[in-house]
Amino acid sequence: MNFSYTSEQQAFRAEVRTWLEAHVPRERLASFDTREGFEQHRVWERQLFEARLSMVMWPESLGGRGCDLVEWLIFEEEYWRADAPMRVNQNGQFLLGPTLMQFGTEAQKQRFLPRIASSQDVWAQAWSENGAGSDLAAIRAKAVRDGDHFIINGQKIWSSRALFADWIFGIFRSDPLSDRHHGLSYVLVPLAARGISVRPIKGLNGLDSFAEIFFDEVKVSVDNLIGIEGQGWQLAMATAGFERSLLLRSPGRYLRTAEKLVQLYRRHHDRADGDPLLREAVLQAWMDAEAYNLAAYHTVGKTLRGEQPGFEASANKIFWSELDLRMHETALRILGERGELLPAAPAAGDVDNWLEGFLFAQAGTIYAGTNEIQRNIIAERMLGLPKA
Ligand SMILES: Cc1cc2nc3c(=O)[nH]c(=O)nc-3n(C[C@H](O)[C@H](O)[C@H](O)COP(=O)(O)OP(=O)(O)OC[C@H]3O[C@@H](n4cnc5c(N)ncnc54)[C@H](O)[C@@H]3O)c2cc1C
């Protein structure tokens, strides 16, 4: 691997850094699990878009700037380094966007992608159902063809940010007589459509982070079908690959958390040094974040040479989710009893948002396909072990 950057890449890094230093909001935005915070994040993403820094890898004609994967990694490092806001439209930008690039018609790309890049439309993912989470092929919600439309009936659950989002991308059973992976279709649905109701579900932080979505005779044009009717499973697996891999969780995020953890340790090392296991955990976290970064460059190098990444997505998913958990647990151990305070508490001092991050990290081993399921994939398809 060549670890040196070209002068163009260095110039790109400098440009991104300068822009972010001048524009990242000084006050932390409200959580995007509130109506107010959701809109604040949308405004921020509009600003990024206007600077052509929203979707740097997308072609210019679709609102991007045509960067390659290495430049994207550089962008991500700078984005997290600047403590820029979490992306409210991550489902649209990092999951649906690449799926549309690969499987959408030209008209669908032109219609949806620029609005995703600018967060004019914010998207939620509507896949999970009661009884169809890990076992996604058990989906029961139906989208049955009626001339130029699908008629959708059924229920989805655990849809992040669906309470305030504009659109969902869902997988539905379009052949009512089909079973398992067959007869499913990948359909885009505006949340304002008649017959949809959205009910909030509270996350661990007490905010409305998810929703249940109910569909009652919802009519959607066939123009909103992505790919071929009945072949939604193949598209869904492509989206799932993006979700588990680098696109959703680039290493920049964990490098930044590791750096903050080291800073926290340095500020508290009188106390932390009393527990050698704590120092060891900080060191390990820093090394693991670096390792994930190097592995990402390795994967990117392979992709640029035209090779397919394969099952690395499942290994990545386990690695980033467990690393995130370990880093937040270590930070709370360093902070001791103050770790339970929110940043606004009078005695909070430098607790920062470690508690919030710790609560969210609990979910990392569940969303994007649970780690148990990823381990099954690695065991069966990568190592060729027999099915349990
Ligand atoms: C923060 C968060 C955000 C989410 N956002 C979305 C979203 O935006 N859109 C969406 O559609 N969904 C979303 N989900 C749902 C998520 O995809 C599911 O929770 C997940 O796929 C697990 O499904 P389940 O909850 O039905 O659990 P189950 O499938 O019932 O699993 C329960 C437990 O059993 C284990 N298990 C199940 N089957 C096996 C097996 N074969 N082998 C070994 N272990 C097994 C699981 O790993 C898990 O530990 C989100 C979840 C979280 C936590």
Structural class: alpha+beta
The value of Rg in angstroms is 21 Å
Helix content: 40-55%
| Alpha carbon gap, first and last residue | 38 Å
* Average residue pLDDT: 95
Largest sheet: 4 strands, mixed
Q: Which consecutive residue ranges, at least 5 long each, have pLDDT under 50? A: none
Write the layout of secondary structure elements.
Elements: H1 7-23, H2 35-50, H3 69-81, H4 90-103, H5 106-117, E1 123-126, E2 142-146, E3 149-156, E4 167-173, E5 184-190, E6 196-201, E7 210-221, E8 225-226, H6 232-244, H7 251-267, H8 269-272, H9 276-304, H10 312-335, H11 354-364, H12 371-382
Parallel strand pairs: 1-4
Antiparallel strand pairs: 2-3, 3-7, 4-5, 5-8, 6-7
Helix pairs in contact: 1-3, 3-7, 4-5, 4-6, 6-10, 7-9, 7-10, 9-10, 10-11, 10-12
Describe the model:
The protein has a four-stranded mixed sheet with strand order 1-4-5-8. A four-stranded antiparallel sheet has the order 2-3-7-6, with no helix packed on it. Helix 1 packs parallel to helix 3, helix 7 (251-267) packs parallel to helix 10 (312-335) and helix 10 packs antiparallel against helix 11. Strand 2 (142-146) and strand 3 form a beta hairpin. It contains twelve helices and eight strands. The two termini are 38 Å apart. By secondary structure, it is of the alpha+beta class. 47% of the residues lie in helices and 13% in strands. It is globular. It has helices at residues 7-23, 35-50, 69-81, 90-103, 106-117, 232-244, 251-267, 269-272, 276-304, 312-335, 354-364, 371-382, and strands at residues 123-126, 142-146, 149-156, 167-173, 184-190, 196-201, 210-221, 225-226.
